[in-house]
Amino acid sequence: MVQKTDWIWMDGEFVPWDEARVHVLTHTLHYGLAVFEGIRCYALADGGSAVFRLAEHVERLFHSALIAGFEIPYSADAISQAILETLRRNRMKEAYIRPLAFIGEGPMGLLFTSENPIRVCIAVWSWGAYLGDEGLRNGIRVKTSSYARHHVNVMMTKAKISGNYVNSVLAKREAVGLGYDEALMLDTDGFVAEASGENVFIVRKGVIKTTPLTSILPGITRDSVIVLARDRQLPVVEERFSRDELYTADEVFFTERPPRSPRSGKWTTGELGWAVAARSQRRSRKISSPWFGAKTGDTEPGSLRSDRVGAPSESGTTRLLRRGGRFLGLGRCRRFFGCSLAAALVLRFRSRFARGLWRFGLPLKQLEERAGLLQGLCGTGGDLS
Known about the structure:
Layout: E1 7-10, E2 13-16, H1 27-31, E3 34-36, E4 39-43, E5 49-52, H2 54-68, H3 76-89, E6 95-103, E7 118-125, H4 132-138, E8 140-144, H5 165-177, E9 182-186, E10 192-195, E11 200-204, E12 207-210, H6 220-231, E13 236-238, H7 243-247, E14 251-255, E15 259-261, H8 273-279, H9 281-295, E16 305-308, E17 318-320, H10 330-338, E18 344-348, H11 352-355
Parallel strand pairs: 8-9, 8-15, 12-13
Antiparallel strand pairs: 1-2, 1-7, 3-6, 4-5, 4-6, 5-16, 6-7, 9-10, 11-12, 11-14, 14-18, 16-17
């Protein structure tokens, strides 16, 4: 159940949560053409809050609308300001943020016209661990889906369009119905694409590899992982890989949720990457430090941006994250992850042929001096008012 807040921003005005309604003949409700974003605001150790890479999220929202063939009737800056003000109005220190642009009621039929208004809403609410605390503690079970990810000429894969997610819903329901927690989806050529709502990375022989931007949505957390890894001289390649390559990888991680098994239940319950990293901070510090450090008010690479949620006079101020950061201990990691930090949770494992069973252990020897944990980023912030 979504936890209600007080206000929702709709078409330039704040309306009470229970009064944010649309007509049953709203065009999007019937044909699925809308664009949206999923954004996070995080509480910082200094008492402030910050929205993670707000500018990039809003830019992708507008790009999605352009691809979908309609124009959002507000500027990108106006939407950014509305997001920050919605957080302030609802007194949210941490929140999930959902902006949605959709086609309103008017003429029916596939072809919407100028008589169908383009409407925009922004809702914020508390959303904890997506797969629950048990998933965070023990990992999740993943099934290769019978549903393929969209072909690039079937749906517009670079747009975050509501209707595109029917594919993900079907894959997720199939996986959960068969006793798994998440679905791994292949593209139409049989290569690994992504999960139902997450990008996927593998590590082999010291090289981090992820699916190229072919049939997948360009994830902002995915980009953050790549930026951090390259900033620390960790090799990252974007190329297609098959699922058997994933099975034999030295590390596998999703950007957002911790996978336990990418094949049909053959792996046993393992440790989350952050728990392993907390016991071996020397290896993980290169990437986990700045990711966590950003939450504490320390700073990171300039290409990773966060927006302050402060007093109205400060709203919309964008601050570049500078280099730095410090590693947080296990206790603080648990607290942050319990708030569903958009993150990459690394799951380490060794071959059943080497150990006689699938189990999670330390990463490759070649990675002993390198980061194995890639976690969510966020910048400095100010007090809510």
